[in-house]
Structure formats: structure tokens, C-alpha cells
Write a structure and sequence with these properties.
Elements (H helix, E strand, L loop, with lengths): L10 H45 L4 H11 L4 E7 L2 E9 L4 H4 L2 E9 L16
Antiparallel strand pairs: 1-2, 2-3
Helix pairs in contact: 1-2
């Protein structure tokens, strides 16, 4: 009796059909992560810029304008407590609907320059 060998025909097609969507999904996920990291860095730069501007004594509107130039579409929150200015910037990762659900935020702190050196110094510097 003569036996026929099983052939591997078609297996490469099935493997490719399974591998290609996996590679596409991995590529999209990697692009999303890289976009998120870039957005995080931009948020941090915008928060630092805003904190420096607020520390110099610029108004909240001017700080928000500067931050919005550095990070368009971001939400800015400015607080001052005990001579320390905190600027928080929050933004969505991308305008792509899938990535819009993810947000990143960054905070930056600066000493308020108007309060630096204004401590009460009643002591005479020359004894």
C-alpha cells in the first residue's frame, strides 16, 4: 500500500493571517506609547514655562497664554501657597479618538520671586 504524505500547504497562509494583525496591533500600541511620552514631555515643559512666568509676577492670564502656546489644548491650573507657585498642565494624548481617552499631566513648582528676600529682617546687619 502506498501512503500519501501530508503536505504543509496552507500553513504559511494561516500563520501570516495571524501574524500580520498582531504586528499591526503592536505597531499601533507602540505609536500610542511614544505619542503619550512626547505629550508628557511637552506638558512638563509647558508647566515649567508657566511656573517660571508666574514666579516672575506675570498675571494668570499671561501664564495661561504662554502655556497654551507651548501646549495647545491643555488645561492649566495655577495655585500659590506659602510663597510657592504650582502650575499643573493636563492634556489628552492625541486628537485620535482612541487615544483621546488617555490624559497626561505635569506639575512644576517655583518660588514666588516677589516673596523671596522679603522675610522680616529686624536684626541690624552691622552689630
Amino acid at each position: 500500500m502506498h501512503r500519501r504524505r501530508r503536505r504543509d500547504a496552507g500553513y504559511a497562509t494561516v500563520e501570516a493571517a495571524l501574524a500580520i494583525p498582531s504586528l499591526v496591533l503592536f505597531t499601533v500600541a507602540l505609536a500610542g506609547v511614544l505619542t503619550g511620552l512626547a505629550t508628557q514631555i511637552r506638558c512638563l515643559d509647558a508647566a515649567r514655562l508657566g511656573a517660571r512666568a508666574a514666579a516672575r509676577g506675570e498675571s494668570a492670564a499671561e501664564v495661561e497664554t504662554a502655556v497654551s502656546r507651548a501646549m495647545p489644548g491643555a488645561a492649566v491650573h495655577i495655585t500659590t501657597e506659602d510663597g510657592l507657585i504650582r502650575v499643573t498642565v493636563r492634556a489628552s494624548v492625541a486628537e485620535v479618538p482612541l487615544l483621546r481617552a488617555f490624559t497626561v499631566h505635569a506639575e512644576a513648582y517655583e518660588a514666588d520671586e516677589s516673596t523671596v528676600g522679603s522675610e522680616d529682617t529686624d536684626a541690624d546687619p552691622d552689630p
